[in-house]
């Protein structure tokens, strides 16, 4: 289970990197990069799967359900914003900036909350 957990963690990082990179690089001319929707869905699904695998496995980190709940709410909001932005022909700079800011917040919660 440890290998599965860390493989999911790697894919989770890749998903958030795609979202953050795809939004930050397009802040000047607001548009949504093609892979951002797939990146946010990858991050959301792998985060949920990581929680399930960590709950089942021994020798994996103890779960902080408050942290997981807050990160899940932020991830769902980011996913909704990405879906809205992907359906718009010309998304606003505020929408793209909100996606980037919330993604940064989610990464900060993961890295700094111990």
Short description:
The protein is mainly alpha-helical. The chain has four helices and no strands. The radius of gyration is 15 Å and the shape is elongated.
Give a verbal description of the structure:
The chain is mostly helical. The protein has one domain. It contains four helices and no strands. α1 runs antiparallel to α2, α1 packs antiparallel against α4 and α3 packs antiparallel against α4. It is elongated, with a radius of gyration of 15 Å. The two termini are 23 Å apart.
List keywords for this structure.
single chain; 114 residues; mainly alpha; 76% helix; 0% strand
What topology does this entry show?
Layout: H1 2-24, H2 36-56, H3 65-87, H4 93-112
Protein name: Integral membrane protein
Transmembrane segments: 6-24, 36-56, 68-87, 94-113
Keywords: Membrane, Transmembrane, Transmembrane helix
Proportion of strand residues: under 5%
What's the total count of β strands? 0
Portion of residues in helices? Answer: over 70%
N-to-C SSE string, H for helix and E for strand:
HHHH
Shape: elongated
Largest sheet: none
Low-confidence stretches are: none
Span of the ends, CA to CA: 23 Å
Q: If you average the pLDDT, what whole number results?
A: 95
Number of domains: 1
Keywords: Membrane, Transmembrane, Transmembrane helix
Protein name: Integral membrane protein
Transmembrane segments: 6-24, 36-56, 68-87, 94-113
Organism: Georgenia satyanarayanai
């Amino acid at each position: 289970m440890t290998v599965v957990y860390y493989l999911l963690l790697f894919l989770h990082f890749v998903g958030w990197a795609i979202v953050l990179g795809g939004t930050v690089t397009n802040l000047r001319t607001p548009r949504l990069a093609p892979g951002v929707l797939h990146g946010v869905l990858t991050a959301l699904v792998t985060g949920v799967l990581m929680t399930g695998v960590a709950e089942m496995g021994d020798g994996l980190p103890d779960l902080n359900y408050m942290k997981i709940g807050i990160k899940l709410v932020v991830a769902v909001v980011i996913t909704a914003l990405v879906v809205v932005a992907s359906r718009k022909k010309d998304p606003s700079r505020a929408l793209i900036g909100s996606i980037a800011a919330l993604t940064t917040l989610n990464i900060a919660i993961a890295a700094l909350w111990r």
